[in-house]
Request: fold
Amino acid sequence: MKRLQYERPLIQRVNTGILNKFGTRTEFTPFTHIDDVSVKDLLQQYGSPLFVISEKGIREKYHEAVRAFTNRYPKVQFAWSYKTNYINAVCNIFHQEGSWAEVVSGFEYNKALQNGVPGEKIIFNGPDKTDEDIRSAIANKSPLHIDHLDELYRITELAEEAGVKPEVAIRINMDTGIYPMWDRFGFNYENGQAWDAINKIILANKLELVGLHCHIGTFMLSPSAYAVAAGKMADLALGIRNKFKKNIKYLDMGGGFASRNTLKGSYLQGADTSPSFDQFAEAICTALLNAGFLQDELPLLILETGRALVDEAGYLLGSVISNKRLADGRRATILDFGVNVLFTAFWYDHKISPAQEFSHYTEDSVLYGPLCMNIDVVRENCTLPPLRKGDHVVVHTVGAYNMTQWMQFISLRPAVVLIDKDRNAHLIRNRETLNSIEVEEVMPSYLKDFKL
Amino acid sequence: MNIRNNIALSDSGFLFDPSTGDSFSVNPIGMEIIRMIKGGKTDPEIRQYLLSTYQTDEATIEKDYYDFLKMVEQFHLIEKTDGKEKD
Amino acid sequence: MEKKKINVAISGLNNVDSPGPGIPVIRALRESKLYDVTIIGLSYDSYEPGLYMEGMTDITYQIPFPSAGQEALLNRLSYIQQHYPIQVLIPNFDAELFNFIKLADRLKKEMGIHTFLPTVEQFEERHKANLPEWGRKYNIAVPRSQMIHSVYEIANLHHSYTYPLVIKGKYYEAGIAYNHDQAVGHFNKISAKWGLPIIVQEFLKGTEVNVTAIGDGKGNMIGAVPMRKQVITDKGKAWAGITLEDSTLLDFAAHLFKETHWKGPCELEMIRTAEGKLYIIELNPRFPAWVYLAVGAGQNHPEAIVSMALGETVTPFTTYESGKMFIRYSWDLICDLKSFEVISTRGELKL
Reply:
């Protein structure tokens, strides 16, 4: 006799909405393939857990973003935000598409240079630029975005030392009606700091002020805040033109556009509520076009959006280590990846799908990572079919900030695979080995030996 | 152990406990187990039946079966005899 | 005239002590002179009383919670569509409206389900937190208010406000503060429960009046019936109310429709001050639970919404009976556990 498909026996209270098959149904629609490549095969070949990036996903998203802005504004340039995902293969997809680089440290700056991005197309942001970074940026003609007065003075000194007049921009912070207001970066618009810095730069005539930069927040769900920001940036640029007869070349509106993830505590799904690129573009471009620039003096619009471009193209594949029952009767599922690898689990209720077919019976479960740490929770509550040890799951929308903020903590970081548009898988980052970590360690000779 | 006599299990997997007013949902394999327990089958008999009927292994059956019984017990669906549960 | 047969889906069957509008809307449609309705109930919870009330829904389907997302909802509706093709759908829950509004076009194009709902912009801009801007945009009087994110901002409020002040949560709960310390107390209590921001609003002394109304989305008010609550429950819900005859209220409502082009049903919550000035304190983007009073007073708004959803032109209502009263009562239904079992396990129920 052929034996039947096994499913774990379940008994649950009615009206906790669990066995009812019309609950959160989307979560347990099995997700078996990424761009037609089987999840099971990927895990078999590259091991579990595994990050997978869809090149098609990235390029399509990028085209969507570019279309949204170029349809509305004549001069648009994207700059890939390295901190969002700086695996070189990912960066180069964006560079192939025409994106410049946007970096916030010497480490990222050198990465962009090594990837072959021309110096003048690397925007150097951030509050921490060492003398070495500044010298290098000046030598490579990279625009330096100044964050504070100390930096302004230091860049001025180093420029004099090099005998050049480097191109700079200043970062502006402002009240756009959203909370929290990011007033820790750059110079404030409302209280006059911004004008103070502008006057200093232009009157000293040691640096060439070519741009204004802002970045009003992160995971922004309100396009209207960008309209306010663009209005204030345009106001400054036009003020500079009137006062100094000088045209600002570019306005860099930064990034911060939300992706389709669901923030913890939000009731509706991020996929349903996150604004589209069209909405952000409409807000920004309309504000700039209506600001009063002469048609041929419209500044270049630079965008540094990272998350909204790459988040959806990333997947994390993993496996079930074990199921257990907690003392209070709740089901717990232990996965082979945790917050060390999926750092964004701290902010989002990530959508997680099983990677194989199941019946419609489901149960609520806490999803834990494998770390021996109480904070290692992937989802506090997730409705999934009864998973067995060894079953696979797919975490969606993980392309942003995970492959840069992941921690080498307790275990090693997984491999990253890119699926190209012809459905071939390419390994773009190896699974770490003991050696990848220990290569940087130094053992004093007197600690080499011990007897136990 | 035995499931209390007054507990009704319908074909749709709806289980009602008239002494508390609680209702539960049970999946098909869970229904089979409850019916077997109510029918007086022993633990080894039930586990043997599951093993021969379903595509799985002994360790999984053992783990899931006892987990299921634990839940049944936690939901107070077990008959108490002499203040002590029957084995 | 022969009545037109039509299938209408209705949610909000939670006819509990703070009732949803589903059952009143169904009663209105059952009394329609134009339509012979088959009602497809949409429920979220096996305990919604409307599921078990004889003569209300013809069949009820459970649908996924709004938090499950629009795809899940779409899948479920397409399943229902194969069994009971829905021609018009009237959602009645605040929490589900966003999803239905976003899906309205797809529902119509892909499934032939007609709705008559406000646009996303209309829905978003009337949120409590956006009310001052909304009032400015459309020249509608609203109480002065602002959002605050920190308890330290309360100390500066005296520059632009005088106590007492209403301290409100973004979605729920409010308290009246007569001084700084009380404002801080409410801020802490409400923000702990509902998060930030907190809305600080000037306290308007006056009488609360409500209007249930429908707009055609082109600036016309198709119907409006004003009501004053006579008795309220401890949850602040009307337990008895009476229709009012007051042309200033209707003019005010008509102005609102003319300016905002509101499409679909809504409830206007207003305050009339001692000087007789009217302020909007809230615009609820759906029928109120007391909408059946409008039917009783001579304006069948749900019927008009069905017609407009089907693309028909509706002649605006011009009269209603003032002094019509409603008194809400509760009633213990005796139901069979079998019905509960069926809805809980199969997700659909036909009584």
Summary: The radius of gyration of chain C is 21 Å. Chain C has three domains: 4-116+332-349, 122-126+205-327, 146-201. Chain C touches chain A at residues 45-47, 62-72, 75-76, 95, 98-99, 102, 149, 195-197, 344-345, 347 (CB under 8 Å).
